[in-house]
Amino acid sequence: MLGRLLQSVLGQDASALNARGIAAWQRGDLASAEELFRSALKRDSNHASAASNLGMVLAARGRMDDAVVVLREAVAIDPRHVGARINLAVILHQGGGIPEAVFHLDQALELEPGNRLARANRIKPLMDLCDWAAVAREVETLKAEAQAGATRWADAIPPFVSLLLPFSPAFQLSVARHHAMSCAALLETDPRTSHLTSNAAEAGRRLRIGYLSADFHDHATAHLSLGLYAAHDRTHFDITAYSIGQVPTHGDGSEYRRRIEFGCDSFVEASDLSSAQLARRIAADRIDILVDMKGYTGGARPDVMARRPAPLQVSYLGYPGTMGADFIDYLIADRVLVPEGSEQWYAEKIVYMPASYQINDDAQAIADSVPPRATLGLPDGAFVFCCFNQLYKTEPQIFAAWMRILQAVPGSVLWLQCGHPVGEERLRAAAAAAGVDPARLVFAPYERKTDHLARHAYVDLFLDTHVVNAHTTASDALWAGVPLLTWPGESFASRVAASLLNAVGMADCVMADLAAYEARAVQLAFNPEQLMGLQNRLAANRKTTPLFDTGACVAALELAYRRMWADRCHGGRQVSFRVGT
To answer: What predicted TM-score, i.e. pTM, was given to this entire model?
Structure first.
């Protein structure tokens, strides 16, 4: 195929080749796009747009270092090329070069002050750096302009970023809808997938379930779902995993990858397939229900779902909100995540799981030993509060509450997950401004999962964030026996910890407001008997409640899949439903 492509580029100029590359990229044909952009640069080595586009395609193919090199070349070719600077910033941000990413976005805005993409893409790196003042200015500007209708921000802000900020559910839905429509509008008609709606509509037959993800490796989603695939009842379900994540050149030999592959009937390495090719593969496999586990997060391929390769399509676990898409039929949730009256903010029909929506691996190991407290930076005898969420989830309101809690509990410390050094320094400065010794903030480096779980032995109480909760990190704490306090908001992303606490029989740790959250944290720090009571209850509930019962969660998912399929077979319209009713 690539040989025919190379023959077809003869005689075309760089701009024509760049345009063809963009079309191939939009189709999800990354291999052809790369060749076309390279051909454009052979015609004109100073074609900044072709270099910029090539860099993004290389990133999409998992070659991040090469992508940065090419994108730097694009900026060097034309320092005033706004798109090249934005693209370079996006890839630098993904690779951890966050301050430099902000620099290039700032440069883009100096060149073009009204550029919506540059402004929208600044928000997440600013959050990673805990630059709350800058984030607040952007959010207020976005809100004002969106309300005034001055600009269509839905086409600029990434859907995932919209979930991280205190935007209204109507705005978040509008952002998701716009991106879903944009994704579908790029697709060519493919008659080779048009037969899919004729998958035999036979109630009761063995169903073919496909799981689509880029995260079948050492990743938070795999940590949660590790026990899912093998636990399916093979008399009624055939399980295929479609891996769209780029496999490192040395191979992914992680235990997570091996267990997931072993747990599936088929495991398809699809990272090098174009979106059209993958859709056709899913169609050829005659998948009945395709479950997307990425949404609009990094490495997602929503254009595969937009091609409708399966009769029923479901969003589950990997994306904490609506995809706003008519090509997603159902969202797996629960009554805590999506309370009565909030269904209107979701494009999908809601499947309400009987407990929490979140599956967990009940075979997850915890290391037998943990380093001494002092080597972890924890003072002997100190009461240890923790929040192991990524730093972008730490907003100023909740951080101020944490500082008041530390002031009220002398000698206590707050154990946080490491982030970018600039973000850590900003948090230390914010602590000092609040009258708290910055040394009372302790930052935990990344550890492999078993060791990370083991170090929870030194934690007394987990303090959750508000706008975006702890998700996997909350399950980690509860599995390790650490009580958690949360103050839920109105969105899916802000209610996950409440869902988990309800499912593990700890609903009394869900606080009604910020004042109650602070007061309860201080009360537990001064009342070891009450804290021990919570710890003992959690230890008992971990074995008896639904949250860590992998088999029960899988059985509920299977009931959901059967109900979806039965409704289709009987010609009924798709409706929201509770599993088991």
So the answer is: 0.94
